Amino acid sequence: MSEKIYVFGHKNPDTDSICSSMVMEKFDKNLGLDVEAKRLGNVNKETQFVLDYLGLEAPDLLQKVEEEQRVVLVDHNEFDQSVEGIENAVIENVVDHHRIANFQTKTPLYYRAEPVGCTATILYKKFKEENMTIDKKEAILMLSAIISDTLLLKSPTTTDDDRKALEELAKIAEIDVNTYGIEMLKAGTNLDDFTEEELINLDAKRSEKDGKKFVIAQVNTVSIPDVLKRKENIERAIEKEIENNDLQLFIFAITDILNSNTQIIALGKETQVAEKGFEKALEDNMMFLEGVVSRKKQILPVIDKNM
Ligand code: MG
Ligand code: MG
Ligand code: MG
Question: How far is the CA of 203 from the centre of ligand 1 (A)?
Fold first, then answer.
């Protein structure tokens, strides 16, 4: 069994996955463990804003894990969303705020799951429970993750625990959460220099239901029409993705983070799943979802139920 324990979030890492890996590394180091934060993909612009703000380097990229590699998962549990080789790794600990699915282990483990808005909120609690000091750097990593996952507490996934954690962390960080938060979220919405292939994979989550594979990808923007200027090319990229990966459905969710709405583009053989689920017809492969911002709470369950 290898010595070092790797801690990482999901593929297509978001701010929670990167920041929580880094904070979890610190937490486990405080406990005397030999851990190293890793990442399973490129750092997005929003997360880069946080790292630049703190003058920190991103964790190293992890392509796959060897058999018996000891790992800690944060911000995910589904093997589809995890590292290559996860089936034969030794999962020692999971800290997550998602449904539990496509997950099993050969050995007993620690598992902390809470239906809160962000992994970092759980980590904040873990630090408090252990009476560990949270320094300014960790506070900013955690509050950035909370702002990202809850869209500045506006997402319906937000809980009182997230609000409390954010408030406490802001005090430690001595930061104005709204000013910092808007700046951070906006940094993540500049999509101009991505190709359409990159765009649809920036934050794509794969799932499977009864052998039917589907993907729900999401991008944040401050202008939906701006993204839709590229609709034709985006659709072409999605069609290719569907063909290459044998997908039944691909949903591309364009979320307006200022007005809290989402425009979806749905393609594939099973687009009627979206129509049935949201009780709305697709027009030109599109559907506008008022008040929808959360993939986890407002899109995935609807698709999963009707698939
Ligand atoms: Mg995440
Ligand atoms: Mg998260
Ligand atoms: Mg997210």
Answer: 9
